[in-house]
Amino acid sequence: MSLVLLAEFEREEALVNAVGQLGERDYRVIDAFTPYEVEGLGGLLGASPFRVRAAMLIGGLGAAALCWFVEWYSATLGFPFDSGSRPPNSWPVFPLFPFEFGVLMAGVFGFAAMLWSTGLPSLNHPFFDSPLSDRASQDRFLLAIDIPSTARARRTLERLLADMGAEAIEEAEL
Amino acid sequence: MTMAVGGAEIFPAGTARPGDDRRLTRVNTNEAVNVLVTGPLLDSERWRRWWIAFAVSAALTVIFFGSMIYLFVAGIGIFGNNSIVVWGYPIANYVWWIGIGNAGTLISSMLLLTHQRWRAAINRLAEAMTLMAVAIAGLMPIMHMGRPQYFYWLAPYPNTMGLWPQWRSALIWDFWAILSYLLFSIVFWYTGLIPDLATLRDRATTRAKRVVYGALALGWRNSARHWHIYQTYYRTMAALATPLVCSVHSIVGLDFAASLMPGWQETIFPPYFVVGAMYSGFGMVVVLCAAVRWGLRLEALITMRHFDIMAKVMLMAGTVMLISYATEWFSGWYSGRGVDRRFLGFEFAGTYSPLYWIMIFCNCIAVQAFWFRSVRRSLPAIILISVLINIGMWLERILIVWNTLSHHYVASMWRLFYPTLWDWLILFGSLGFFAFLYLLFVRFFPVVSMHEVRQLVREETAS
Amino acid sequence: MSAGTEISRRAALKLFAAGAAVSLAGCSRPYEEILPYVDMPEGMAAGEPEYYATALPLGGYARGVIVKAVEGRPIKIAGNPRHPASLGATDIFGEAEIMALYDPERSGTIRGPNSISGWSEFFAELLARTDKAKSGAAPLHILTSTVTSPTLLRQIAELSGQVPGTRWFAYDPAGGAAEGARLVPRLDKAKVIVSLDADPLGPGPMQVVLGRRFIDGRRSADQRMSRLYAVESIWTLTGANADHRLALPPAGIEAIAMEIAGRLGGGNAPPADLPGEARHFVEAMLADLKAAGQGALLLAGGSLSAAARKAVDDANRKAGAPVDRIEPPQGLPHPEALGDFLASLYGGKVENLLVLDCNPAYDAAPGKTFADRLEAVPFAVHAGCYDDETAGLCRWHLPLSHPLEAWSDLTSADGAVSIVQPLIRPLYETRSAHEVVALYAGQPTPSGHDIVRATWRQDETDEAFENWWRGTLVSGIVSGRAPKSSSLSPAASPAEALAPEDAARTPPKGGFTAVLRPDPTIYDGRFSNNAWLQECPKPLSKGTWTNVVSLAPVDAQALSVEDGDVVAVASVEGAVEGPARIDRGQAKGVVGLTLGYGRLRAGAIGTGLGYNARLLAPGSLGNVVAGVKVIRTGRRAPVPSTQMHFSLEGDLGKLLPEVTAGEALPGAGKPREPVPSLFGPGPAKDPYSWAMVIDTAACIGCNACVIACQSENNIAVVGPDEVANGRAMHWLRIDRYDLGDAAEPRHGFEPVPCMHCEKAPCEPVCPVEASVHDTEGLNVQVYNRCVGTRFCQSNCPYKVRRFNWFAYNSGQEYQDLGKEPMRARFNPDVTVRARGVMEKCTYCVQRISGARREAEKTDTPIPEGGVTTACQDACPTRAIQFGNLQDPASKVNRLRADRRHFTLLAELGTRPRTTYLARVRNPNPKLAGDSA
Questions:
Q1: Facing residue for C763 by CB, picked from A79, A83, A92
Q2: Can you give the pLDDT at residue C834?
Q3: Contact B410 C812 (CB under 8 A)
Q4: Are C668 and C902 in contact (CB under 8 A)?
Q5: Backbone angles phi, psi at A35, to 5 degrees
Q6: Residues of chain A above pLDDT 90, percent
Q7: For C663-693, how does the pLDDT look when each residue is reduced to its tens digit (9 = 90+)?
Q8: Terminal CA-CA length for chain B
Q9: Please, which pLDDT band fits residue C547 given cuts at 50, 70 and 90?
Q10: How far is the alpha carbon of A88 from chain C, nearest alpha carbon, in Å?
Q11: Least enclosed by CB within 10 Å: which of B30, B240, C315, C545?
Q12: Is domain C650-664+691-921 in CATH 3.20.20.70, yes or no?
């Protein structure tokens, strides 16, 4: 948890512009809050979807492999039987179940990884205490910047933000 | 099709056609989107027409579940099936519903992957349709079973008999296909909803709504970092959904094609089932779009251009269907096998042939009207043709079942199917249950993906 | 699967079987000693089946049977190989007696003048009446159907001595011709057989024997195979199995009979007036007959006049035709005819009447006249198994025991006598016919056992008699002695029946000629309440649960009647209504009716089905009624049928190929080429590979296999509505196809059980391993594993699977079939299937398993013939053979190499274990051009 300055912008361009400028001036931009995905911004802020990708790959392939194993095991070792003179290991028909279930598990694992990566669910996040937070889901673009250590620097930052088009600046906890 | 296609017409003022602009002609701000979509949800005053529809659908739902309970008590003999035509309405209903269920995912995933941004206005509608259609489709095989209480025996689980499912059966593939598809669609749909639920939470007018929507939104706070992870996941899901949806209906096709019966054992079945599914699904999306657009006054968001595009897709699909049928006919004749040629003769001139000709009209002929722009731009015409397509596609499914099972190899066992009251009650009951679920969805969830439309607004206004 | 589950399942089955046995209270062996057919070890294990030889009547005549009983419950009837009228096979009526035994509507209580009563009350009134009878005031009239029981004949004779003035009348409800000697043709010895409206292969007490003999004659080396001509007016099984058939109205047949009998006898009979084609047919037939010499055989049907029958008989005698003459037993009483009884009754002379085991108010003289007269008889007593139409008109109704419950004896149509031993103590307070007659003779507590034994006891030691008695019970056939006869004889002399058929012989004054036949599955109405027989498809029409009015296509067209339209058939005396069936090959101007339906008091199963053809001429037993009208009613009543399509146009002919005698079927007899497979050979098999070969040339379409299978395998009856819905459950069906052409239509039969495909299409599509293959090549269905997806039947090219749409046998039975005694009929070795599961032919896997257990006890392989299926056992013509393909000497292997061997739908590569031999036709070359 840390205190940040939340700056509210009306337009996406202003927010993107601010992120760029603040970065040049060595301000630490903690996060941004936008009513839709601003492409590239998350990556710029250091978010990595690696976990999601890895989880989906592992979950999907792992589930598929498990399914195939279950098929192979049950058909050849667990309960082999004669079904229309087909061999127990009727591999040509085996891929369908692993594929279906693998895709499902990729989705489920990915969802779990997404929650894990984003720390959701977090229903009472302090962000929601900020009066500005409501509009981030509707039409406003918020920027969270680490509060400089000195009061002067903070004033400089606030002025800078106002210049860049920030319509409101509030202190908030993240 | 580029993003400009949808956007250009949707948003700039004055371009909406007369009749479309009763409420709002400019949807060029985020707030306009929010107001349009969340307004009805947060205002309980506007739902009189909804209540009427809901009462009707609830009555049909009672019939549906009442029939189902009677079915489970009295036994499957209440249907018109006989020992020769052992499959009947539930199988046709199943294939039909799962076909409808396909279009939703196709719209959201395939169009997302191909950057068809106009989809943003209708993908939520279509995905919800998918969910409900697949859920109903999933009930049908259970109602079809002789001992429905044991449907779970199709799953591999440790049991005292040491038995496992029989992996060579198309029904096992089918079981997993439906189950996976249903659960996957739920995850996909819910994932898409999360940011919009957050919007609803933040616009909620009562504490109850704020709490419920807030809980459902999982504490989404529109963080750019989250967006990045979220969109990666969502697009990957879309990428996975496309082969999944194709495989699901291919497997439905295999339910028939993996047999050795005349009229079923055809390699064309998997692809033609996928196209057929998309076809009927688009037909249903059109009907739902028209209804929701009218009911929630979303003319500014769902425009005639959307219908125009969907009409073109249906025209393409209907033509593919015609080619598929023609391929079936040709290969049946070209095979030279007596049984296949007899089967063709039965299709065209046998007992069910009037239905077959109606099916060809609905699926292949009626849709050709979409070559004309004026038809594509006429909402009543589009709705009429979409309904015809859905009737035709249902007929196609029941005829696949009936023709083959009625007229197969052994002449002594040729026999016809006569539906009973219960067959019809389950069919129309399932439509009512679908409407019931859909009306609940419309009442409580945002029918348009707001965050995606906002992005679209920004792209349109920026250009 | 662990061993533990195996044991517990077996234990559970045992408990189930025990429970099922206990639930039927009062199911136990009779008090008297009964003797099993094969010697059984001492100390019977519970649940082990026992087999007893006995005999069952049909139309009064015996067919020897072996009854299987488990825990005192008779559950299955098979033929007795030692009995000449059975030869080890059965007919449907014999098989279905199991159903009759447990029929909950069988009469179980005595009904007095107004209420339920008791035997002692009846006896009290009887004594009073007998005194009056003895004084001559009210002589006793006994009315029966055909009686062949030596004991009953003896009792009637003794009774008429005891009570002077006693008169005995008997009739055959099926309307058989009254004759002195019975003629039993040796169809196996004949080379050219001409049936003149006779139906030797049709239903009747000799069907099994005549069917066997006929097919034996066809099987003798191909070149000398017999040839059958049928001249008949409506289709019979004989016509269906004939090489040539000519359809003519009864008058035409009569003329032809006179002509050929005369010309064959060397005389110059006047030529019958025939159209050109029929003339050609008759000339070719005559030439063939003459060439056959002693192998020529004419068969005269009951619709021919006595004169024509005599002419035919003379011709046969002169030619030395192979016919056995069975003379009626000497020294036993002869009954008077029905006509005499009716004359007596209508004359008001009957005051004291015993109607014994027959139902004249339905099957002889239905209608108000008879009913009023019978009701007016002061002391009318009806003794019968059912409280039927006649019982309702009588003062007393006495319940008779079922033949499986009572001691008796019976004579077969070819003269063999059997002792009838009960398998079970009477389920209700019933008595046998012998015991009822003994009551009339003044014995208050008669014992059927003693009465029957008294007939057979000669002057001998107890030990000698006991030895003979026991030996006779074991074998089921009386040998070495004649019954004790009585010198006393009823007052009246035997008289020819009031020849009712004479009316038919006067040329009809326009209108149709109605031809009445016993129904192929219900016979004369005695089996109306038998659900197995009601649901058994009629061999040719495949209709069930009703009788129809068959019409020639030209007549139907003239009347604008279609299949299923209800038509009324009216004679001077009465009218009936029934659904029309247009029968290609029926004689023009003839309307075909069958007996046995139109019951008013048959029970829950049989009441209200069909029409009673006897209403056209009440009081007459003739099977031709001339001058009837046929009227369209405008209503429709489609017949519940198990088959809807009969023609084999195009390449469908491969389903039932036919060869001419001596020819080979193309491609038959060659070893099968291996079918290329992606998967390679299947798993290795055990020492047994079960297979079945069915000779379609030997199938006469009698349905015995169908009912045998139903009995053996606990197959449910579904009722007429469900049959109409296409849900009949028979595991074995007999497909009937149209062969021939419009000029000379013919029929072909093809029994279709499960094919037990080696590459079974039903197996890989089952999601839950309910349909799997066992190591002996059986395609087995695991009922408790089945979830009812029905994919197996969808994918079965032969459509042999049957689905339990309702709990037909386990809670949702048709009518009263779920009532308590009915449940006792089940074979405990076969699961009663639950609702929602698929079932099908198992090759009687329970019998295979039983044989395997026996073989394991002695550590020897199951021998050839060690396992027989129920259908195979029942088949009169031995058309069905079952055995082990791994045994090079087995019969199935030999038949598979036959020149007529074929596989149904071989092109699908399913490699069925059930295969066929093609039908054979032996046409007269001179008539060969008549049909392709």
A1: A83
A2: 93
A3: no
A4: yes
A5: -75, -10
A6: 30
A7: 888 877 666 666 666 665 555 567 899 999 9
A8: 17
A9: very high
A10: 9
A11: B240
A12: no
pLDDT attached to residue C932: 36
Q: Which residue has the higher pLDDT, C854 or B15?
A: C854
Instruction: With CB atoms and an 8 Å threshold, state whether C772 touches A81.
Output: yes
Per-residue pLDDT, C240: 94
> May I ask the CATH architecture of the domain C110-177+333-419+426-475?
3-Layer(aba) Sandwich (3.40)
CATH topology of domain C503-636: Barwin-like endoglucanases (2.40.40)
Quote ipTM for the complex: 0.90
CA distances to A15, A110, B40, B213 from B452, rounded to whole Å, are 19, 21, 19, 19
Give the pLDDT band of residue B104 (cuts 50, 70, 90). confident
Backbone phi, psi, residue C597, to 5° = -110, -175
The whole-angstrom separation of Cα A148 and Cα A158 is 10
pLDDT digits (tens, 9 = 90+) for C764-784: 999 999 999 998 989 999 999
Residue of A nearest to B195 (CA): A137
The answer to whether the Cβ–Cβ distance between B83 and C767 falls below 8 Å is no
Task: Find out whether C438 and C154 touch, Cβ atoms under 8 Å.
Answer: no
Domain at A3-48+124-173, CATH from 1.25.40, 3.40.50, 3.30.70, 1.10.8: 3.30.70
What distances in angstroms separate CA C576 from CA B61, C548, C565, C594, C608, one per listed residue? 50, 11, 14, 11, 13
C180-223 pLDDT, tens digit each: 677 889 998 899 999 999 999 999 999 999 999 999 998 876 55
Question: Which range marks the domain in which residue B101 is found?
Answer: 3-462
- Residues C765, B87: C-beta atoms closer than 8 Å: no
Q: How far apart are CA C852 and CA C854, in angstroms?
A: 5
| Beta-carbon separation of A139 and B29 below 8 A | yes
Candidates C1, C726, C834; nearest CB to B162 = C1
pLDDT (0 to 100) of residue C489 = 43
Contact C246, C231 (CB under 8 A): yes
- Alpha-carbon gap: A114 to the closest alpha carbon of chain B (Å): 7
Q: Tell whether A83 is within 8 A of chain C (Cβ).
A: yes
Q: What would the pLDDT profile of C23-66 be if each residue is shown by its tens digit?
A: 444 567 777 877 776 555 444 566 688 899 999 999 899 999 99
Is residue C394 within 8 A of residue C30, CB to CB? The reply is no
Please state the domain extents for chain A. 3-48+124-173, 50-118
pLDDT per residue as tens digits for the range B165-199: 999 999 999 999 999 999 999 999 999 999 999 99
In the stretch 149-168 of chain A, residues with CB closer than 8 A to chain B read none
Closest-CA residue to A85 (of C682, C756, B166): C682
Q: What is the pTM of this model?
A: 0.91
- Closest in A79, A84, A87 to C773, CB measured: A84
Minimum CA–CA partner of C773 in chain A: A82
What tokens were used for C261? 């009998």
Q: Measuring CA to CA, which residue among B410, B88, B427, B408 is closest to residue C805?
A: B88
The nearest CA of chain C is from the CA of A51 a distance in Å of 37
Q: Are C233 and C250 in contact (CB under 8 A)?
A: yes
Residue C13, min C-alpha distance to chain B (Å): 16
The domain C182-326 belongs to what CATH superfamily?
Answer: Dimethylsulfoxide Reductase, domain 2 (3.40.228.10)
Over residues C837-871, the pLDDT tens digits come to 999 999 999 999 999 998 999 899 999 999 999 99
> Interface partners of C (3+ CB pairs, < 8 Å)?
A, B
The total of structural domains in chain B comes to 1
Spell out the domain ranges in chain C: 8-101, 110-177+333-419+426-475, 182-326, 503-636, 650-664+691-921
* Band (B5; pLDDT cuts 50, 70, 90): very low
Secondary structure E strands in C807-865: 838-839
